[in-house]
Amino acid sequence: MLKGRHLIDPQDFSVEELDQIFSLAEEIINNPENFTHLCNGKILGTLFYEPSTRTRLSFESAMLRLGGEVVGFSEPSSSSVTKGENLPDTIRTVAAYTDIIAMRHPKEGAPKYASQFSNVPLINAGDGGHQHPTQTLADLLTIRIAKGNLTNLTIGLCGDLKFGRTVHSLIKAMSRYENIKFILISPNELQVPKYIKTEVLDRKLIDYIEVERLEDVIERLDILYMTRVQKERFFNEADYIRLKDSYILDKEKLKSAKEDLTILHPLPRVNEISMEVDNDPRAWYFKQVRYGMFVRMALIAKLLGVK
Amino acid sequence: MLNINSITKGIVIDHIKPGYGIRIFEYLKLDRANFTVALIMNATSRKYGRKDMIKIENVIDLDLAMLGFIDPNITVNIIEDEKIIEKINLSLPDRVEGIIQCKNPRCITSEERGITHKFVLLDENKGIYKCEYCDQIYSWEG
Ligand SMILES: [Zn+2]
Q: What ipTM is given for this predicted complex?
């Protein structure tokens, strides 16, 4: 039962519960006109303690497309937060007005703390560098639609794998499905943190390799998840110069990739995917943005118990 | 060995790791007690070689989870009529609330007033906990 639940960590829901959300999202994608009144009379509260226009617009569009309404704030300066109100009081107040809450906060664990005071479902819309579960749902739904299922895949994760929370969440989430292999592509200093290797990959006996260059492995991938590598994250200039082009996806590298490769990116991008790739049928990152809205629609409907 | 009179009614906290007795003594605020208490340090122990002990001639409420968190090998003996009527073996508690602080400066616990720091047991063998909010790892041994 998803009705009345909070979503704080992508692992809060079982694989079966995620399946229910994805199936509903697919129904919505196929027949959006059937869902335009589903949330009539319901209100989503969007509490954004730090600005994130993309995520907020995605949540708000999702609710409006379901026929619901939206209230909230997009940065703390416009709210009572600056007057020093504590989080429990804000949450109790907003929960009194709304039917469901989406909350973004710069501090890690803030949505978890807030959920203890909310008697309506609370969705973590990103808490610092910690979790961003609806991004993970968007990633999974996109893979599921691109590949037909979430099993038997070789997934390449490329770029900054040390600090990228979307990468960590995706590894944990995909590790729950059958026969998944990971190819982790990053400079040595930006490899996946050790705890992900010991507690997730090794513990579940999941096949993975770590490599430095995308061009060496791209032909083996079913999914390629690109993230940005910032120059400041490299330890030395020499490594940066040697490797920087290995983390930029362009037409040349795609020549050796599979015909049915699916390229994903959590966006916004800087230059890690060359714009010449955008028209390639393997580029799924703009669809991924759209699926992100649909999966939020399905999530809202399930947590409200209206579907 | 130093002789401490046996107690008729009270609590003996036994098998405390040497050096930890004073911490428990302070945590239980026994330095301010108005009843008889004894802190025995570095007593000989058949089991561990050396141990600390605390004898309390009174019936007080003990937070067993907290004691287990400080040292899971502690034994708590409840005494009545000079006899042990109950022997409680402690273990690491599943949850620790309001005892240790999360050290992650990006954690919500560093900002909110009135928030209780909560930790969940992650690895019993290694005594590793994680912050319930930000997942930051905490291990007692530091
Ligand atoms: Zn914390």
A: 0.88
